[in-house]
Specification:
The complex is a heterodimer. Chain A is mainly alpha-helical. Chain A has one domain. Chain A is built from 5 helices and no strands. In chain A, 41% of the residues are buried. By secondary structure, chain B is mostly helical. The chains are: A mainly alpha, B mainly alpha.
């Protein structure tokens, strides 16, 4: 296998980023992730990711710096998404017929673990982690260039 | 590049942690997880219409419980049952009522955990008038694995 130069590596990373972005959009569409206000922030994060990927492809250092800040914003939204998914599952505990009579009596750690591992509730806990990966790709693609 | 690594390494760590955190949970009770479809199909059975509860085989479990209770009632007071009508449930508009109003209506309808269910009803607004069977709400609520009849109880307290 030939050795990748910096340009090829950057192009590959950006391609991975766009692939991740497209896949996440497709998944959110399939999930109809727009039925309430709090299901909208991931779309904001995806828009930010798109801008970040565009900026990461540019040569100016200032553009790449902005891309990294956008990646940080996307990461924050993604981590918030993980939290809110766990919180949503936790709140759904008493609604599940398997737990409705016992949820409040369970130890807090058990309830948290059950919610965090999607043993209860409808929210996919780690789904928004995909945005973290895309943000990481953006950061890696904004590495200093030889001309810098 | 070194500056990038200060950002990339923590981000990579977060990604790895997120990827490693998946696992199985332990149900609190051995009750098998009932299908969402069963919960959705279950028919709400007011006392005066209990016989309709046995129409669907899919709702056999829920129907059996309700039918038994109603049979006992009708057996003891047949005359009274013949003239009894279902208690009037005060309906609230699912699209415009406040969460507190919805919660009160759900409590009046006998919905368990009315507070939590009212939050879900509010979250998935709006509900189209053309959706006569409340398919949207049924689909959303079914994700929570509610007990038999709960979704129908909730919908019995709502209007558009």
């Amino acid at each position: 296998m030939g050795r990748l130069d910096g340009l090829s590596a950057r192009a590959g990373l950006l391609a991975l980023g766009w692939l991740g972005l497209t896949g996440t959009v497709a998944q959110l569409v399939l999930d109809r992730h727009w039925s309430s206000f709090w299901q909208l922030p991931p779309w904001l994060a995806l828009i930010a990711t798109g801008f970040a990927l565009r900026l990461a492809a540019r040569a100016e250092a200032s553009s790449r710096r902005l891309a990294r800040w956008l990646a940080l914003l996307v990461t924050a939204i993604a981590l918030a998404g993980v939290y809110f998914h766990i919180e949503g599952n936790y709140q759904a505990g008493p609604l599940d017929q398997r737990f409705s009579a016992t949820w409040e009596a369970l130890p807090l750690a058990t309830r948290l673990w059950t919610a965090a591992t999607q043993g209860v509730g409808p929210s996919p806990v780690l789904a928004s982690g995909a945005l973290v990966m895309t943000a990481l790709v953006v950061v890696l693609a904004t590495g200093r260039r030889a001309a810098d | 590049m070194r500056a990038n690594m200060w950002i990339a390494v923590p981000l990579g760590g977060v990604a790895l942690i997120l990827g490693a955190c998946a696992g199985e949970s332990v149900p609190a009770t051995p009750t098998p997880r009932a299908s969402a479809a069963t919960a959705q199909l279950t028919t709400t059975v007011p006392p005066s219409a209990a016989t309709t509860a046995t129409k669907s085989a899919a709702t056999a479990a829920a129907s059996a419980t309700v039918s038994t209770a109603t049979t006992a009632t009708t057996g003891s007071t047949p005359a009274a049952t013949a003239t009894t009508t279902a208690p009037a449930v005060r309906k609230v508009n699912a699209n415009t009522a406040t969460r507190a109003e919805i919660q009160a209506a759900l409590e009046a309808a006998g919905v368990p955990n009315a507070s939590n269910w009212s939050r879900e009803v509010v979250e998935y607004r709006p509900y189209a008038a053309t959706d006569t069977n409340w398919s949207k709400l049924r689909g959303e609520l079914a994700k929570y694995n509610p007990g038999p009849g709960v979704v129908d109880l909730i919908i019995s307290a709502l209007e558009r």
